[in-house]
Write a structure and sequence with these properties.
Blueprint (H helix, E strand, L loop, with lengths): L1 H42 L2 H6 L2 H14 L2 H4 L1 H22 L4 H44 L1 H7 L2 H51 L6 H19 L1 H22 L9 E2 L10 E9 L10 E9 L4 E5 L6 H8 L4 E2 L5 E5 L3 E4 L10 H6 L6 H10 L3 H6 L17 H14 L4 E5 L7 H12 L7 E5 L14 E6 L2 E7 L4 H7 L4 H10 L7 H19 L6 H12 L7 H7 L21 H6 L15 H11 L1 H29 L3 H41 L3 H6 L2 H43 L4 H45 L1 H6 L3 H53 L5 H42 L24 E8 L9 E8 L4 E5 L6 H8 L7 E6 L2 E2 L5 H5 L2 E4 L8 E2 H5 L7 H10 L3 H6 L7 E2 L8 H14 L5 E5 L7 H14 L4 E5 L11 E6 L2 E6 L1 H6 L4 H8 L11
Parallel strand pairs: 1-6, 4-9, 4-10, 7-8, 8-9, 14-21, 14-22, 17-20, 20-21
Antiparallel strand pairs: 2-3, 2-5, 2-6, 10-11, 12-13, 12-15, 15-16, 18-19, 22-23
Subcellular location: Endomembrane system
Membrane topology: Multi-pass membrane protein
GO molecular function: ABC-type transporter activity; ATP binding; ATP hydrolysis activity
Length: 1184
């Protein structure tokens, strides 16, 4: 007895140690795979970047890596289980002779059948993960464009698309459940049938009486067989998932990577060209036969010190040329020669990449903080006034994708980051299109500056009147039809040279431009350029708003000339020695001021629940499971399985006969199979319920929730937590109940024959449960920490995927990889602590269970010795005691697992209970809604703030826009222009005042009732993963003819016709396979299709479009929306000079509201000053 006790307990200690070693190995593999996935994500080719969305990559990270854990956890069981089966059969052969081999025949039949089921299950698993990839890809697009969805009232349409994918996913998941049920039951039936046939052959065919000692030993070996084979379904299920996930990861890790960079970072010869492209052709997708995605036969040289401008129509390839220079496009067949010689490159993409950090953190980009350099960069980028408007200065958290900033502010933050990097070559992609004219002139003068020294820059231009003119541009390159057509050296202005060249296609562009409203001001702009630069001097001297920096800046800045390039600024301070810590709080005595942590914070800290998982969470799950199904399954498990198995054990002990065992055991497994089917149905119901509720809650959440919650945190709920609800919780719950029933069965059988043992077992069970409860508090907390760490990792991958091109160009891949490793280690710390506590629990529970069995067997032996019980009863007690110890350890494990997995329910329920925005639809028959004519818009004493603790962004705003009126809205950054739009669309409700449309207070309407009649073309175009048709018409309301008509009016039809599939062309995630200008034209086509529009809002809708196309678009707007009220937020004042009235905003108030003529006649008006800075003159007589 003592030997049996110590042997069994020693075996369990070894198993605990083995599992701990396996878990550590898994964490090492997880770290390696996470790093490999990150490296691959950064190195993906352009076609691979489009193919593998961030949603898919997060699926690899959260689900596929998790599935591979079985390589370590199950490898020992794969060796141990067959070995145990062989030992058990050998022991049975020694007891039952050749009759034992009847059971072998059963296993020979069972394994091939289950092999076929396993292969089918593998195909289902692969299908499931592909559908999940599609769902997460679409969900990532939806979350990225949630603001646009709300503005267009498209939430319902996107919900239907996601629900459709989810329904397919759950259908496959249910098939997998049924396959696993069939495999599980067949493996459980195998030892039963083997036992029956072997005993039948021994007693009936061979005719040998069944003695208790033979029955006792045989049952021990059959118990070993049963426990080992019971593990096979789990091993097969885990193996299928690991195999499928391994193939997916291998496919991803073998995906095509970017070509070896042609950027030479160690160039030492200043005489050689900085950029040299000779007979090169480039492609985005690596497809030689797809000319729409190519640059062909490019020849270009850029000498040191040159400043290059690239111009051309929408989609002509300007940004693509810049990408090709930076190594972001694939060189076709490696023809020609491509060399870029620069130690460092500063890159500002057309859509600025903003990290979810403070403004200072975005500028520093994890570099060391040099106070003097930082101050000069902020001032050179004209951000001093902006910092005064931010609640915590440059310590203000600007949110994911710069949600807290305007388009112009985001562009300047990205520019400041590039300037701070002290680069030799700067690539600027239409950087100044979103800023006011005078700010653009200041930045051009102070950052880019005159050609001198070692700095050289290449940039694309959309608004020539606003950027890179006068004596600054050495070469102008027009990019037409994906080919470099015109190259002219020049020393005079851009406009003059191109007009002198009659043969240049560029001259035709300028002729067309000159006949447009934009062209009239170009020559005048040249004359007043020096005046603008003089005015820019005042902008440059604006100090950073932070207290200590403000003291440092002025003296040094005043002693230097205005026209300093970024290279000069950085060179002068490279050795200042004022370099402090890398943290964002550097530059202050004592680090970051504490008040900025509160005032400047935008993102909410992820909340963690405390203590064990509340019982209401279990109730929520079982309600979603189905109360009736849960009750039936509970009855099946305890009153079916436990009762019949306990009776069969007692019966066998009394009669040592297999005949009666047949009926009881067969009923047991009928109950088990029925239970599995109930679990599959209930799990399907629960998965449907939680995903549907979570999705509905997200779509009904106010926009402030998405502003304050990182996307990675939300995606973690939609991917990792939902996957655990789909797969782990049903298994953990059903397995916990099954194992608990098995352990209870053995305990009931023992106590049934020896009731006195209840006095021994109950106190031990009380200790057992007390230890589990004590442990669960810590274990659940560690799982919450792990889930929070996973959210941080998801956000980091999301951020890095969006800025992969900037990370590569800035040559900071190593730095980001190190951060990825750090986040992975942080996640592993909570996991390893969790596993430590788990092993602590396991060893103590194993000891208690062994003590309980030792006492029971010892008492049974004493009673048998005194003839109080028979030897058959003694054999049954020993046998069930052995089974009890085996299952009790599993009870502790699965109880812990089910408790820990319930954290996923807890986290999802937290978002299901989010604060909701107002109702989408409110029926009111008395209203004349929707209006059938242009909207009459009134703002009456409107005050608005984004959060209760923040200042007003609109302060007593009053104005009245008559039906059909065209109103331009202008003002400096932070004046409140975009806030007017947010208030009109009820993205944020006013804290006081009223907004009326046709006399109806919009706060009394449903959100969709209101937004259905409003249309906006936003500054940042958002496209969704899917077809062109989906992006134009998600409700399938229009015919193809209607869609083509809208594309014609948006001047995009010719481009779409050239694409493969036309309207069915697959748009990549976030529209990555279209230019930014083309994306803006898609938004224009959307607006044309909305037939109920009574008020149209244009928010810098053509900022990324060339002047010629812009002129045509403006004409289309005036024609198509002639019966609508139009509000246009504009930085390019030329586009609104023919409007009825101009609304000038200043500091959240209406400063001026009058016709353009009247405002231009008044030299004291703000609009007059803005127009003057933009090069627009009015003599007081000319009518506009």
């Amino acid at each position: 007895m003592v030997l049996l006790f110590f042997t069994d307990f020693g075996d369990k200690l070894v198993v605990v140690r083995r599992d701990f070693a396996s878990f550590r190995s898994y964490l090492n593999l997880r770290s390696v795979l996470t790093t490999l996935i990150f490296d691959k994500m950064i190195r993906l080719s352009p076609s691979g970047y489009i193919k593998y969305s961030v949603g898919e990559i997060q699926n690899y990270l959260n689900n596929d890596v998790f599935h591979i854990r079985c390589i370590f956890f199950d490898v020992c069981d794969f060796i141990n289980c067959p070995l145990t089966v062989c030992i058990a059969f050998f022991g049975l052969y020694m007891e039952l002779g050749v009759n034992a081999f009847y059971g072998v025949v059963i296993l020979v039949v069972v394994f091939p059948v289950n092999y076929a089921l396993t292969k089918f299950s593998s195909r289902l698993e692969d299908k499931l993960l592909k559908i999940k990839d599609e769902r997460l890809k679409l969900m990532n697009d939806v979350l990225s464009g949630m603001k646009v969805l709300k503005l267009y009232a498209w939430e319902e349409s996107m919900q239907k698309l996601i629900f459709k994918l989810r329904k397919q996913e759950l259908h496959v998941l249910r098939q997998i459940f049924l396959m696993e049920a069939a495999i599980n039951v067949s493996f459980q039936l195998a030892p039963l049938v083997a036992t029956l046939i072997s005993f039948y052959g021994y007693t009936v065919i061979q005719g040998t009486p069944m003695r208790p000692d033979v029955a006792f030993v045989s049952l021990l070996f059959f118990g070993m067989l049963r426990i080992s084979i019971y593990s096979f379904p789990r091993l097969l299920s885990d193996s299928i998932k690991a195999w499928v996930s391994s193939k997916r990861l291998v496919e991803f890790l073998n995906a095509e990577e970017k070509q070896k960079s042609h950027i030479l970072r160690d160039n030492q010869d200043p005489a050689l060209p900085v950029v040299s492209l000779k007979d090169c052709s480039f492609s985005w997708d690596g497809n030689v036969e797809n000319p729409t995605l190519q640059l062909q036969n490019i020849n270009l040289e850029v000498q040191p010190g040159e400043l290059i401008g690239i111009v051309g129509r929408v989609g002509s390839g300007k940004s693509s040329l810049l990408a090709a220079i930076l190594g972001e496009m694939e060189r076709i067949e490696n023809k020609g020669e491509a060399i870029v010689r620069a130690k460092s490159i500063g890159y500002v993409p057309q859509q600025p990449w903003i990290q979810n950090k403070t403004l200072r953190g975005n500028v520093l980009f994890d570099s060391q903080f040099n106070e003097n350099l930082y101050t000069k960069v902020i001032n050179a980028c004209a951000m001093g006034e902006d910092l005064k408007l931010l609640s915590a200065g440059d310590f203000t958290e600007i949110g994911e994708k710069g949600i807290n900033l305007s388009g112009g502010q985001k562009a300047r933050v990205a520019l400041a980051r590039a300037v701070y990097m002290d680069a030799e070559l700067y690539a600027l992609d239409d950087t100044l299109s979103a800023v006011d004219a005078h700010v653009g002139a200041a930045i051009f003068a102070n950052v880019i500056g005159e050609k001198e020294g070692e700095i050289y820059a290449i940039g694309t231009l959309k608004q020539l009147c606003q950027q890179k003119e006068g004596p600054f541009a050495d070469l102008i390159r027009e990019f037409m039809e994906k080919k470099l057509e015109s190259q002219r050296s020049k020393k005079s202005s851009t406009l003059e040279v191109t007009l002198e060249d009659e043969d240049s296609e560029l001259s035709e562009v300028f002729r067309q431009l000159s006949s447009s409203p934009l062209g009239d001001s170009l020559l005048e702009r040249r004359r007043i350029l020096e005046e603008q630069l003089a005015k820019a001097e005042g902008i440059q001297q604006q100090p950073v708003v932070t207290p200590k920096v403000q003291e440092v800046v002025t003296e040094d800045a005043e002693s230097r000339p205005v026209h300093q390039s970024s290279h000069q600024i950085m060179h002068q301070h490279r050795n200042d020695g004022d370099v402090t810590d890398i943290s964002e709080g550097a530059g202050y005595a004592g680090g970051r001021p504490e008040w900025t942590e509160i005032v400047g914070r935008l993102t909410k800290e992820e909340e963690l629940a405390t203590g064990i998982v509340k019982r209401r969470i279990y109730l929520v799950y079982f309600r979603s499971f189905g109360i009736l199904l849960a009750c039936i399954y509970f009855l099946f498990t305890f009153f079916g399985v436990s009762t019949f198995e306990a009776l069969s054990s007692v019966w066998l002990a009394k009669w040592s006969s297999a005949a009666i065992n047949s009926t009881a055991e067969s009923r047991t497994h009928l109950f088990i199979y029925g239970g599995f089917n109930l679990v599959s149905i209930g799990a399907y119901n629960a998965s449907t319920y939680f995903h549907e509720k979570l999705l509905c809650s997200l779509f009904h959440s106010p926009m402030s929730f998405f502003d304050q919650t990182p996307m990675g945190r939300i995606m973690n709920r939609l991917s990792n937590d939902i996957a655990r609800i789909d797969e782990n919780i049903p298994w953990a719950t059903s397995y916990a109940l099954s194992v608990f029933a098995e352990a209870l069965n053995s305990l009931i059988a023992i106590c049934f024959v020896i009731p006195v043992l209840v006095l021994v077992i109950l106190p031990l069970l009380a200790i057992f449960l007390g230890i589990i409860h004590f442990y669960n508090v810590a274990s659940v907390h560690f799982r919450r920490l792990t889930s929070k760490a996973v959210s941080s990792n998801c956000s980091f991958f999301q951020d890095s995927h969006a800025g992969a091109d900037s990370i590569r160009v800035f040559n900071v891949v190593e730095r980001f990889r190190d951060k990825s490793v750090y986040l992975c280690d942080f996640m592993n710390e909570s996991l390893i602590t969790e596993i430590y506590t788990n092993r602590w629990l396991q060893s103590r529970l194993d000891f208690i269970s062994d003590v309980a069995v030792f006492i029971c067997v010892f008492v049974a032996i004493i009673m048998a010795d005194y003839k109080w019980i028979s030897l058959g009863i003694l054999a049954m007690v020993i046998n069930n005691g052995y089974i009890f110890t085996g299952y009790l350890g599993q009870v502790a494990r699965v109880w812990r697992e089910s408790e820990v997995q319930m954290v996923c329910i807890e986290r999802v329920t937290e978002y299901i209970n989010n604060e909701k925005e107002p109702e989408w639809y409110i029926k009111d028959e008395s209203r004349n809604w929707p209006p059938r004519a242009a909207g009459h818009l009134q703002f009456k004493d409107v005050c608005l703030r984004y959060r209760n603790e923040l200042d007003l962004v609109l302060n007593n705003v009053n104005f009245d826009v008559r039906p059909g009126e065209k109103v331009g809205i202008v003002g400096r950054t932070g004046a409140g222009k975009s806030s007017l739009t947010l208030a009109l669309f009820r993205i944020v409700d006013p804290c006081s005042g009223k907004i009326l449309i046709n006399g109806i207070d919009i706060c009394t309407m449903g959100l969709h009732d209101l937004r259905d009649v409003l249309t906006i073309i936003p500054q940042d175009p958002v496209l969704f993963c899917g077809t062109f048709r989906l992006n134009l018409d998600p409700f399938n309301e229009y015919t193809d003819a209607g869609l083509w008509e809208a594309l014609e009016k948006a001047h995009l039809a010719d481009t779409v016709r050239e694409l493969e599939g036309g309207l069915d062309y697959k748009v990549a995630e976030s529209g990555a396979n279209l230019s930014v200008g083309q994306r803006q034209l898609v938004c224009m086509a959307r607006a044309v299709l909305r037939q109920k529009t009574c008020i149209l809002v244009l928010d810098e809708a053509t900022a990324a479009i060339d002047p010629e196309t812009d002129s045509r678009i403006q004409q289309s707007i005036r024609t198509h929306f002639k019966d609508c009220t139009i509000l246009t937020i504009a930085h390019r004042l030329n586009t609104i000079l023919d409007y009825d009235r101009i609304l000038v905003m200043d500091a959240g108030k209406v400063a001026e509201f009058d016709s353009p003529n009247s405002l231009l006649k008044n030299s004291d008006s703000l609009f007059f000053k803005l127009a003057e800075q933009a090069g627009i003159k009015h003599n007081g007589k000319e009518e506009i």
